[in-house]
Design brief:
The protein is mainly α. The protein contains two helices and no strands. The chain has one domain. 67% of the residues lie in helices and 0% in strands. The termini are far apart.
Amino acid sequence: MKRLRFKPKSSLKVRLAIEARQLSDEAETFPPGHKRDSLLRKSRQTKVASDIVEWLISPGR
């Protein structure tokens, strides 16, 4: 059976940045509380993941 492959239309870094922005925007619609804190935490984690991806693909010095 042949594997279905696809190529993402944008880089992982860009997709993570978009996801982080969407989570932040969604969190702003909720009043302070558990749901908002959870969304903001996930947004921060996604931003950190984007930074790590950038570090991994950088050529270094």
